[in-house]
Amino acid sequence: MMDADTLLAALGHDWVVEARAEVARRPDAIVRHFAAARRRIGRAPLPGAPGWAADEAARAVLLAALPPAELPALLETLYEHGSAEEKHAILRALPLLPLGGEAVPLLRDAVRTNDPRLVTAALGPYARHLDQAAWRQAVLKCVFMGVPLAGIDDLDGRADAELTGMLAGLAEERTAAGRTMPSDAVDLLRRLTRPRDPGAAGPDGNGAVGAAGGPGIVGREA
To answer: How far apart are CA 54 and CA 12, in angstroms?
Structure first.
């Protein structure tokens, strides 16, 4: 996983170095620097940090410079008052930050939106702190919105029998209505219900049971 030091090296920009140092000394300075990031360094892709734009990486570096005691409150403030672009940067930065579950309310807010980028970012590695019921609903929302499931962290590892049943029910509804499921959702459902070796043991030592009672993947329940 990318970390803040790697992002800082990929940026190679004096403004980020100076802003980071000021934020470490004076945490409230992040409000000004966070808003200025795009204007100061642009949003070009970073070759040294695949998948990150310059302003987004700079914002992650600034967040990582905050003292841990100040981090949750300032995250909430920045997210509440931020643009969609700034919220996206915060959600992407969460796995890089010294947090427990303090930022889960931000995930819950993001998955209630109809912004595909925010929904996807909320389902990154930090979503391990999201309870299973909320996580299932977020995955299902991605299917409804046509958001690519490839952006969901640990999808196959976390998928459980209840999610399988939800997807199967949605597939039946769409078939009855003459509509189709996104191809990646169809692929996921096939993986979850794929027959396994009857002798293979699941996590509890028993064979796995899929949504329809047949062999498949058994995951964690909430």
So the answer is: 10
